[in-house]
Amino acid sequence: MVFFFQNLVNALQWGSFYALIALGYSMVYGILMLFNFAHGDIFMVGAYIGFGVATGITALASFGAIALPNWLILVLTILISMFLTSFVGILVERLGYRPLREAPRASAAITGLMIGIILETGNLALLGAKRVSFPALIKSTTYNISGVYVTNKKIMIVVVSLMLMFALHQFVRRTKWGMAMRAMAFDYVVVPLMGVPINTIAALTFAIGSALAAAAGILFGIAYPVLDPYMGIVFGWKAFVAAILGGRGSILGATLAGFLLGFIEIFVAMIFPSTLRDLIAYSIILLILTFRPHGFFGEPYSARLRL
Amino acid sequence: MSDKDGKLSKNMKILKDKMLDTISGVPLLGWLFGILIAVLLEHFAGDLLVDVLGLPKIPVLFGCVIILKKPLMIPGAMLYMLLIYILPISIVARLSSVPANRVAAKLLDYPMFVSVLIHIALFYASLYIWSEISAYRVLTLKLTLVAIILTLSLNVINGYMGEFSCSHPGFMALGAYGASVFTVLLFANDKIFGHALLPPSLGPFMFPIALIIGGITAALGALVIAIPSFRTRGDYLAIISLAFLFIVKSMIENLEVVGGPRGLSSQPDYAGLPTVFMWTVACIWITNNFVRSTLGKALNAVRDDEMAADAMSVNTRRTKMVAFLFAAFWAGVAGGLFAHVLRYVNPGTFGLQKLAEVLAMVYFGGLNSVYGSIVGAVSLSLLGEALRPLEIFKWIIIPLLLILVMIYRPTGLIAFKEFDVGKLIKPKQRPGKEV
């Protein structure tokens, strides 16, 4: 039982990265019917921006220019990086996707893939091939709850990601912008005719998705403090799997599928030899999709998919 | 001022028309003849010219490396290109246009395959002589040919069928390992599989069987994707095929029998240039016939409107299945060739990087077109080699190029064009002149 709960904690942490990234995929996919394959690399860029911001703030604090408690530095880092990374997302949308809105969807997917490669290589060219280590923003303390070891970092990561997901949910459900997004996901052609500004909504969608990816990047940097330019590739593609598994454009679905993917990966690695992780995890997903091809909360395919 | 400009552009236009007029009367046969003469020239006089121009050695890939690395040698390299390739090809092609046209017209009297075979033989001769200069050229050429097979087979799924499949590296891996296990087990002394079971002299004759086994392995793997994902349409093929890619890679990494993550080596050296060339030609021929057949047209109908196709008595599920397995088969063959060209495979090769590469080739060249696949595969492979001196900036320039192509031609450079061999090989008439 202790074994189970211990891994549950790890899986919650691992799944929250997937879930946060998957949300960005899912929103873009739900509203614009695009695969944003650059999203994994936006996660990487977000982590690096977070690294820059955190280093900057701690340097300022250590010079005595500003006196800040550690938790405030963390909150500031997350917020500023989310804000900055959202502009990366807007830029990607403006340069890579908007010119292709009338093109076949697959072409836009290729553009995304290529933007991803440019982001990776650009990072490599700018910062060099060495890995950077994320500054330790919070001191790690370990709690022992009847045999289960939980660090404060893990709790913080899970709580912050759940808070972000809840905020996103509220935003999409309660605000006028959120309503516009849902309307756009419902009908891509008619809703713009009703006066909903499609470009603004598209940019907003990319901005929110990128901000969430940045948050995931920083949380990842706190948990595993080594960043390298290619860290976004595998994460991005796996989160893409989670996003589609959740169902088209479903926030709840993407969250659940992200956590599910985390659970499957962690538990497979615990029970079987860890080299079998991908094999078993993706076989399970293949099986799920065989019986539920629309994902958890997706509606069955209808003829209005545009190509 | 504007008058002068107008005159200048008029002159340019006349010049352009004249040039077009000069070359438009040359049939394919004439061009191939010109290329043959050019490569023969390089073969015999290349070293001499290199000495005269002060270049270190014969520019391997059209001088790109020299131009990018040593700016001082740019004039020499340019002059070399002009003297060895551009001038001989255009002069010979132009001069031989009349006899070449006559020969091409004469060849039409025979069955078409005679003419096609002569064209292919001429082309192969030029490639062979061109590649003899260095081993690097041979390797680049082989990998380019393999890339053509791969791109063409992915184009069947992504272009002709209109789905988005991400599993091609997986099929390639299955084919590579299927074919390699066959040849290594039977014809090679290896650490893992022990001594050769059959005399190695039989090997080259059995190599086609090895490749076909590789292709069938890939096609069987494709069934795993095809059965669940073709029940509904939509984007689920994309993710199921992606999951399949992860599964295949992870499976091979865990199979200690074939070397696990260390990979499998000591494939016999069967994939020479003629073998790879023949398989590529066969792939182009068969795929071209496939997409122009009733089944291929049905495939296009399914892509454009599945419901309408269904109403018009197309068995949509069967059509999609056949096309998918067909494409997977050729991807497997490409994988087998790839493994025997490099004589080493490891599962890391067939990852997301390879996926991005193949997708880029398909969409760069053009969807729904055999021409496009050839152009995409050749240009991106050669570009990748030619820009090597730029190191990592290569991976900024090539993606930027692709984004530009996507923005200005969203379906690729040469999309939706039929590959008509008959039209390609027939004699050409100069516009406005009767022959």
Description:
The complex is a heterodimer of chains A (307) and B (435). With 307 residues, chain A is mainly alpha-helical. Chain A has one domain (2-134, 146-291): ABC transporter involved in vitamin B12 uptake, BtuC, CATH 1.10.3470. Helix content of chain A is 72%, strand content 4%. Chain A is built from eleven helices and four strands. Chain A has helices spanning 2-32, 39-62, 70-97, 105-127, 152-174, 176-186, 190-193, 198-223, 231-246, 251-271, 277-291, and strands spanning 132-133, 142-145, 148-151, 226-227. Chain B is an all-alpha fold. Chain B has two domains: 2-131, no CATH class; 135-423, ABC transporter involved in vitamin B12 uptake, BtuC (Orthogonal Bundle), CATH 1.10.3470. Helix content of chain B is 72%, strand content 1%. Chain B has 18 helices and two strands. Chain B has helices at 2-24, 28-53, 64-69, 74-95, 97-107, 112-131, 135-160, 168-187, 203-229, 236-254, 273-292, 294-304, 306-311, 316-342, 352-365, 370-386, 394-408, 421-425, and strands at 264-265, 344-345. Chain B has a two-stranded antiparallel sheet with strand order 1-2. In chain B, helix 9 packs antiparallel against helix 14 and helix 12 (294-304) packs across helix 14 (316-342). The longest helix of chain B has 27 residues, at 203-229. The two termini of chain B are 43 Å apart. Chains A and B meet through helix 4, helix 9 and helix 11 of A and helix 9, helix 10, helix 15 and helix 17 of B.
